[in-house]
């Protein structure tokens, strides 16, 4: 099988396979999705235990996977305990990203979808800044070679842009 621009070209006897897309750290999404007021970003708040655990866990990815997994799991537990929805959504993303790095895409997709559901509760279904997260979810489905869910997620991505009277970027990765 050959691929061009991550589009599968099946060979006669194979199942379609995709190039494994790169999925960047979810930290880049948090600034777009956080509801912290722009004016208050200058006055840095004291981070919670969940946030500190997430930061140290993310820093350990690729260096010490055991520590990364432990810290990110504890971050999720702390976020669940303190019931802050943004922290919970962020912790789900962090642990989901960890599972991407271990190629456990089933766990990753579960965590990313749970995070997306929380961000939608916070911002509403048509919040344009959800686009990058939705695209990351599509990429995870692509890593799983799950063409059906990949296509449904890309359609959701395109619908988000349409609902915001915007044109989606022409490339997906």
TrEMBL record:
Among Gene3D superfamilies, the record links this protein to: Tetratricopeptide repeat domain
Pfam families linked = TPR_12 (PF13424)
Annotated coiled-coil positions are none
Biased-composition ranges for Low complexity?
A: 1-16
InterPro entries, alphabetized: TPR-like_helical_dom_sf
Q: Where is this region: Disordered?
A: 1-21
* The name this protein goes by in its record: Tetratricopeptide repeat protein
Q: Which organism is it from?
A: Dictyostelium discoideum
């Amino acid at each position: 099988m050959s691929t061009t621009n991550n589009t599968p070209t099946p060979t006669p006897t194979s199942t379609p396979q995709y190039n494994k897309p790169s999925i960047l750290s979810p930290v880049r999404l948090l600034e777009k999705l956080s509801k912290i007021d722009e004016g208050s970003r200058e006055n840095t708040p004291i981070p919670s235990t969940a946030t500190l655990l997430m930061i140290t866990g993310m820093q350990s990815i690729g260096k010490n996977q055991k520590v990364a997994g432990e810290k990110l799991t504890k971050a999720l537990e702390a976020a669940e305990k303190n019931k802050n929805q943004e922290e919970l959504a962020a912790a789900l993303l962090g642990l989901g990203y960890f599972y991407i790095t271990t190629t456990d895409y089933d766990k990753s997709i579960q965590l990313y979808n749970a995070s997306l559901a929380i961000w939608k509760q916070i911002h509403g279904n048509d919040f344009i800044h959800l686009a990058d997260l939705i695209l990351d979810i599509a990429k995870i489905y692509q890593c799983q070679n799950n063409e059906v869910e990949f296509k449904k997620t890309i359609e959701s991505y395109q619908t988000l842009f349409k609902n915001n009277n915007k044109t989606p970027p022409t490339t997906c990765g």
